[in-house]
Amino acid sequence: MSDRVDVNSLKVGMYVHLDLSWMSHPFPRSSFRVESEEQIATIRGLGLDSVRWDPARSALRELATAGEADDTGAAARPAPTEARAKVKTDTQASTPAERAAKARRELLAQQRAAAQLCETQYQEAGLAWRRAFDRVDRDPQGARRDTESLSQALRDKMLVEGEMCIRVLNAASGDRATAHAMNVAVISMLMGRMLGVMDADLAELGVGAMMHDVGKLAVPERLRHPDEQFSAADQQVYMDHVSQGILQARRMGLSEQALSVIEQHHEMADGTGFPRQLTGDAIELAPRIVALVNRFDNLCNPPVLARALTPHDALSQLFANARNKFDVTVLNAFIRMMGVYPAGSVVQLTDDRYALVVSVNSIRPLKPRVLVFDPSVPRDEALHLDLDKLPDLGIRRSIRAAQLPSAALAYLAPRPRVAYFFEPGATPRVGEDGEGL
Q1: pLDDT digits (tens, 9 = 90+) for 274-299
Q2: For a surface tag, which of 28, 56, 316, 382 has the fewest beta carbons within 10 Å of its beta carbon?
Q3: pLDDT tens-digit map of 341-354
Q4: Among residues 318, 338, 358, which one ends one of the domains?
Q5: Are residues 111 and 187 in the same domain?
């Protein structure tokens, strides 16, 4: 249950809910415990008169004494001794099985809430990108402002202390162009974060990544994606989307950093790219990142779904067949961040069970969280296993969805298109027995 508190009465330790869109504030989540006076100052700067707060999830020193009320007007929490006594009584009054069932329900609720939050944030960001992209022709300067605002909001969410997870989503955001732009932007910005790109440059990397294909607005739709059946003239029109993108970027007034991404995102380290056949260090870092991520997403999410590779196979192909085309440092960092089995991969575990990789922690990518096929548990009640906490369980191999038994395919339900988003690493950790870890 939540109460309202005037923003001028906020205190460190309060658990608050910001009733704003996720893009309208700089915090990673819209509900969180206030940890510093700086956060309070930020909340006061959002233009809100009051916010919702949850006394039960707060940790206020002022409420340590039972029955004491603070100046927010809310009733105090029980004193620590009383709270401990209550927990002890509750524990004695339930069996181990009942406690395990309760813990499982709570973890499942947290898991569902985290998934829904990620989906909502992704949809909100995707809609913001689509509005900006649709505005390019009629109002290029407005499109720039919208894109910069979106990129800065994403950057602010990423610049948190600690780990970051890459999550596969249940559904892509609308059309393929939106999903592609969001995938390239999100993964490129996470790559920039990992490689130590400065904050301001990270935002410009995001702008360039979001608008890397803006030149395709001037290309006939049938020629916007390369095809082996293209004539020489068709291929030239397709390649011209880069020069058209440069023109659009200048109309928009994009920065030189963002412009470099649009200008160089098809250049290859070995000189086989276009339009200028640049090599090595002649290609700037931001476009080197976007070129790799762009290729990866096009392998996973091609215009023709029948040609789609699994995330694992796409990564393997890049490493095996295209190492000379991409910056070695960027490629190695990409593999470390995404993991050998990126989110969205269908795998077989070392105990022979089938699973879907749900999210990958960028710090521990070899031990992702997975949804395991277990016919004894309904899919919507299945807890994700954190392989990092299960040293005796790992991944044996990646498999294609078509190789799954029909029951496992229906249960795991891998999506034909892969959409990615990010979340702070502090997500519910669940062990084999369903207990929190």
Answers
A1: 999 999 899 999 999 999 999 999 99
A2: 56
A3: 999 999 999 999 99
A4: 338
A5: yes
